[in-house]
Specification:
Helices cover 55% and strands 0% of the residues. It has a domain of 63 residues. Helix 1 runs parallel beside helix 3. The chain starts with 14 loop residues before the first helix and ends in a 17-residue tail after the last helix. It is mainly α.
Length: 99
């Protein structure tokens, strides 16, 4: 049976950029920034019809850091409530990328 439009995998527009972040997360530790990045990517790729390798690797990071998705989101809600996780890294202002 040929794939239909409903079940055909797609390439996420941010897949290449996100793959680099995932590589860093796989090697990194659960500091505030990395927790926020993991949560952001989990949200971005959740339910997306494609990028299954990224989704799998995000689950590996969660397991490595001994967190459930619920614990991750609770921690990052607390982080965002008390401070700015994404700080400006240069003289120009950067935007958060939630697309």
């Amino acid at each position: 049976m040929a794939p239909t439009a409903e079940n055909k995998d797609q390439k996420h527009p941010q897949e290449s950029r996100d793959r680099e972040i995932v590589k860093q997360l796989l090697q990194g530790n659960p500091d505030d920034y990395n927790l926020a990045e993991l949560a952001r990517l989990k949200i971005r790729h959740q339910g997306f019809p494609g990028s299954r390798d990224i989704q799998r690797d995000l689950e590996i990071v969660l397991h490595k850091w001994q967190l459930t998705e619920e614990q991750l989101f609770e921690k990052t809600r607390q982080l965002h409530a008390k401070n700015i996780v994404y700080k400006v890294r240069s003289n120009r202002q950067e935007q958060e990328d939630w697309s």
